[in-house]
Write a structure and sequence with these properties.
Elements lengths: L3 H16 L3 H19 L6 H15 L7 H15 L6
Length: 90
C-alpha cells in the first residue's frame, strides 16, 4: 500500500533538493525525501511523532538554507499534514 501524500511530499522534497543553491539544504532535503519515500511504502505507517520530527526539520531548512525553495518545501509540508489528518491520535 502506498501512502500517496507521503510519496508526493518525497517527490517535492527531491525537487527542492535539486533546485536549492545550498549544498547543506540539498543534502538535508534529500535525506528527508528518502525517509518519506521509505515511509510511504513501509508495512506500517508512521505515527504523528515521526512526521512531526520530519516537519520540524523541514521548517529549519526552509527558514535557513532552503529559502530559495521554500514554496516547494511548504507544498511538501501540506502533503504531510494531509496524511496526518487521517491518523488517529494527537
Amino acid at each position: 500500500m502506498t501512502r500517496e501524500e507521503l510519496a508526493t511530499a518525497s517527490d517535492l522534497l527531491e525537487s527542492a533538493a535539486d533546485d536549492t543553491a545550498s549544498d547543506d539544504a540539498s543534502e538535508r532535503l534529500g535525506d528527508l525525501a528518502d525517509q518519506l519515500d521509505r515511509l510511504s511504502t513501509a508495512d506500517q505507517g508512521p505515527d504523528h511523532g515521526r512526521l512531526a520530527r520530519i516537519q520540524s526539520a523541514l521548517n529549519d531548512v526552509s527558514s535557513g538554507d532552503g529559502e530559495d525553495v521554500a514554496d516547494t518545501i511548504d507544498e511538501a509540508d501540506d502533503a504531510i499534514n494531509e496524511y496526518r489528518s487521517g491518523l488517529e491520535g494527537v
